[in-house]
Write a structure and sequence with these properties.
Layout lengths: L1 H6 L6 H12 L3 H14 L5 H12 L3 H14 L4 H14 L4 H11 L8 H13 L3 H12 L7 H13 L3 H11 L9 H9 L2
Length: 199
């Protein structure tokens, strides 16, 4: 039924999303991504399909393809904060040796400078860190930590890395210990463990 709807270029996203889910149950990630990309073209104003495709590509280590999807979403909807966040974070995690890409990440993430969302503030802080702007990175990430909600281990890793680079070793170690809690997985976890083991 989903295939028939997709073959007919259904103008709503659900058949593409549901078919992709079935592919994922069968561990067929490439086919899931392909059908989600088809959905992104068929239903350009619904961003669920391209967001799901970009997430799958990122998980598979295909960062350039994922970033291209986030770029396309932002061209079509510049106010899409989740795409802006994911694009900036992916650049800061995987393309941080590229100064041009990092500057793009900064321009993309600075929209979050006035937010109270700790996830978005963390991304902005991480981009500043990658650019070597440690004072601003620390200021922003401390705002993220002040929001009152529990933050992810990844935020503690980012804060620990910022503190370590700033020479605040004891405070960095305390943050890194919060970052390596068992059962968590995120970009940078292995680096957090390495940093902690060197202390």
């Amino acid at each position: 039924a989903f295939d028939k709807a997709i073959d007919a270029n259904a103008a709503f996203a659900d058949p593409y999303l549901d078919r992709a889910h079935l592919y994922l149950v069968e561990h067929k990630t490439e086919q899931a991504v392909a059908v989600l990309k088809k959905g992104a073209i068929a239903v350009p104003n619904d961003f669920r399909a391209p967001m799901a495709a970009a997430a799958l590509l990122g998980n598979a280590g295909k960062y350039q393809e994922a970033m291209a999807l986030y770029d396309d979403m932002l061209i079509r909807n510049p106010g899409l904060d989740v795409a802006a966040n994911n694009l900036a974070e992916m650049i800061a995690d995987y393309q941080f040796n590229d100064s041009v890409a990092l500057e793009k990440a900064r321009q993309t993430a600075e929209r979050f400078s006035g937010t109270t969302n700790p996830v978005l503030l963390d991304t902005l802080a991480w981009v500043y860190f990658r650019q070597g702007n440690l004072p601003l990175a620390q200021t922003v990430i401390e705002r993220a930590l002040e929001q009152g909600s529990s933050v992810s281990p990844q935020v503690h890793y980012h804060y620990g890395a910022i503190l370590m680079k700033s020479g605040k070793t004891d405070a960095a170690k305390a943050e890194l210990q919060k970052a390596v809690v068992e059962g968590n997985s995120y970009p940078g976890l292995e680096e957090a463990k390495k940093m902690l083991s060197r202390q």
